[in-house]
Amino acid sequence: MKNTESVNHEKKGGPWKKAIGYISMVDPSESLCQDCRICEMYCAAVHDGACGLELNRIWESRDPFRGEYFAYSCKQCISPSCMAACPTHAIYIDERTGARCIDEEKCIGCKLCIKACPLDPPRINFNSVKKKAVKCDLCKDRPNGPVCVEMCPTMCLELKKY
């Protein structure tokens, strides 16, 4: 399932291609998250054909006391520490989108990429059934781009450009 048009850090040592952007919430003055979690469900369904917390590549979170909502997904780091930490070179850069992607066939489930993620919480999830890491790949194979952005009923998600 690996895109053959990819740049693997085995072949090229940084600086790596920038991603086309990352998933972010729009300004709250434009639209507000309603905590419906549609983004999570569609993301998992498109990538895995099922829904579940371990399949999420985007997570919603909220602070009910402050009325704030957050969306967490991979920021597609310019110098991805997850990629450098992977002992099997399972993390590669998609040539078209620049997204940092995981080649499921190469992933051995060691979780070193999760530990290497500099963000808190880490933006890489672990599917304990398949014993593989999963992360946002900007829906690199979808002509319409990220499904979470497309399906959000309140249009509070966007593909934020670098």
TrEMBL record:
<dbReference type="GO" id="GO:0051539">
    <property type="term" value="F:4 iron, 4 sulfur cluster binding"/>
</dbReference>
<protein>
    <submittedName>
        <fullName>4Fe-4S dicluster domain-containing protein</fullName>
    </submittedName>
</protein>
<dbReference type="InterPro" id="IPR050954">
    <property type="entry name" value="ET_IronSulfur_Cluster-Binding"/>
</dbReference>
<keyword id="KW-0411">Iron-sulfur</keyword>
<dbReference type="InterPro" id="IPR017896">
    <property type="entry name" value="4Fe4S_Fe-S-bd"/>
</dbReference>
<dbReference type="Pfam" id="PF13247">
    <property type="entry name" value="Fer4_11"/>
</dbReference>
<keyword id="KW-0004">4Fe-4S</keyword>
<keyword id="KW-0479">Metal-binding</keyword>
<keyword id="KW-0408">Iron</keyword>
<feature type="domain" description="4Fe-4S ferredoxin-type">
    <location>
        <begin position="98"/>
        <end position="127"/>
    </location>
</feature>
<dbReference type="InterPro" id="IPR017900">
    <property type="entry name" value="4Fe4S_Fe_S_CS"/>
</dbReference>
<feature type="domain" description="4Fe-4S ferredoxin-type">
    <location>
        <begin position="65"/>
        <end position="96"/>
    </location>
</feature>
<dbReference type="GO" id="GO:0046872">
    <property type="term" value="F:metal ion binding"/>
</dbReference>
